[in-house]
């Protein structure tokens, strides 16, 4: 329960920003913002962000809630950092806005003692990915606009080059086509290269019986749809095979067939689809058993992939089980910075459906909270990718590193934690700072009501903590 100065401050901020009180309290998570900024000054600072970023008020407010230290920077400093990001991405201004919206810490000015300012870090990530793929930095940045989380948690070194090598010369055709698919679906950069090669071979073999679809895969099919089919071969390929075996392939485009989703039941096909699906799964199991007997196998779990657990990514496991609405892609939209929503893979966000694969094979150990999410045909979250909690912890660590100059770490934080109102609310570390009460009377008295005796109780509780200290 909020009390004292924090409650009043949070109430005023919530009223001025038109947000719930819990969101206003997030701004107090940075002690310097709480101690040095009045609610009116916070509102003024957000309006300054609007001018600096040329963004609507709600977008600037969301950025401030995600990175409270933006409120300590001047509009000129924020504009300078955004200009630096756009200078890194001269051919993709929308990508710069999308990257900044997903990583607000990049807009912070450099700290005088070092740290802050995301230009150098962003430049390193973009340059590394561009070098592995053999493309320009702007092309990688444009791909990051569809999924900016890639820049927050970049793939392990060498994984992009491995994915390119796994798909080169396969069913996608030329290397330029492979690059287009990889950039349209950045989640492919995290996938197991051997699984990618196996998916590519299986898709090419299945589509070879219908030349128009086979030609579309290597030429006219939208790269986002081709990448989605590679990532979700197990749940989506059976439907394509079923349509071809029933002679229905001439009635539907490959793009639309991929976008039908991964549900195991299609009402228009009736029981024939379910019976066929069981036979198909049995056939696939037998083929996989023969491949395993011949000595084929992916890399050991947790090895050969830069320390990343590839289980469930790229060919099975969690991909075939969940396709939830994306909850982590509700970021800032600066005039549709992510571009037009004409990507293939489905006009609508796909909802959860029954799994198509045969069971839990390959899905053991996968964190179900990191299930696959697809929006507009673009994979925006995947097993092994950065979760919302990971990003929150990462941003908190970076903010803490920027907060204090060298040799002064913890001074302001210690002052904040020693305040009586903070200890009474049982904030993090309050027990370590104030200690426990000598006889227990301090805590019990401080929990009284807001009458006169309650105030006296808080005073005695404070003295009890001082004696214990």
Automatic annotation (TrEMBL):
Source organism, top-level taxon: Eukaryota
Annotated spans, Disordered: 291-369, 425-469
Record's compositionally biased regions (Acidic residues): 338-354
Composition-biased stretches (Gly residues): 295-318, 427-441, 451-462
Protein name (Swiss-Prot/TrEMBL): Uncharacterized protein
Species in which this protein is naturally found: Monoraphidium neglectum
Origin organism lineage: Eukaryota, Viridiplantae, Chlorophyta, core chlorophytes, Chlorophyceae
């Amino acid at each position: 329960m909020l009390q004292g100065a924090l409650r009043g401050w949070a109430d005023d901020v919530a009223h001025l920003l038109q947000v719930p009180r819990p969101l206003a309290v997030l701004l107090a998570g940075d002690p310097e913002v709480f101690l040095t900024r009045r609610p009116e000054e916070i509102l003024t600072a957000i309006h300054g962000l609007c001018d600096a970023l040329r963004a609507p008020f709600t977008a600037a407010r969301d950025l401030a809630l995600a990175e409270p230290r933006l409120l300590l920077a001047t509009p000129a400093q924020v504009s300078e950092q955004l200009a630096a990001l756009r200078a890194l991405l001269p051919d993709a201004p929308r990508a710069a806005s999308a990257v900044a919206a997903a990583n607000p810490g990049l807009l912070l000015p450099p700290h005088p003692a070092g740290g802050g300012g995301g230009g150098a870090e962003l430049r390193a990530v973009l340059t590394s990915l561009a070098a592995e793929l053999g493309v320009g930095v702007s092309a990688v940045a444009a791909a990051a606009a569809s999924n900016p989380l890639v820049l927050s948690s970049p793939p392990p070194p060498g994984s992009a080059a491995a994915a390119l090598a796994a798909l080169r010369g396969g069913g996608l055709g030329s290397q330029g086509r492979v690059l287009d698919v990889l950039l349209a679906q950045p989640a492919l950069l995290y996938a197991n290269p051997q699984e990618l090669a196996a998916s590519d071979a299986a898709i090419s073999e299945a589509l070879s019986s219908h030349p128009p679809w086979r030609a579309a895969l290597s030429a006219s099919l939208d790269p986002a749809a081709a990448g989605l089919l590679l990532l979700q071969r197990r749940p989506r390929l059976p439907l394509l095979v079923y349509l071809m075996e029933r002679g229905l392939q001439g009635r539907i485009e490959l793009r639309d067939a991929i976008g039908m989703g991964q549900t195991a039941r299609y009402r228009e096909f009736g029981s024939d689809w379910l019976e066929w699906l069981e036979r198909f799964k049995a056939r696939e199991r037998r083929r996989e058993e023969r491949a395993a007997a011949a000595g084929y196998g992916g890399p050991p779990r947790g090895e050969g992939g830069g320390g990343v657990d590839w289980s469930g990514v790229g060919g099975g496991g969690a991909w075939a089980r969940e396709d939830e609405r994306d909850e982590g892609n509700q970021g800032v939209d600066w005039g549709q910075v992510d571009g037009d929503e004409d990507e293939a893979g489905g006009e609508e966000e796909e909802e959860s459906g029954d799994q198509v694969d045969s069971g839990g094979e390959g899905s053991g150990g996968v964190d179900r909270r990191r299930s696959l999410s697809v929006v507009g045909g673009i994979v925006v979250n995947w097993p092994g990718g950065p979760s919302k909690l990971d990003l929150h912890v990462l941003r908190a660590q970076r903010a803490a590193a920027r907060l204090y100059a060298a040799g002064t770490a913890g001074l302001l934080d210690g002052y904040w934690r020693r305040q009586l109102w903070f200890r009474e609310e049982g904030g993090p570390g309050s027990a370590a700072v104030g200690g426990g009460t000598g006889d227990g009377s301090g805590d019990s008295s401080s929990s009284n009501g807001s009458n006169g005796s309650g105030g006296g109780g808080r005073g005695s509780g404070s003295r009890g903590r001082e004696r214990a200290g």
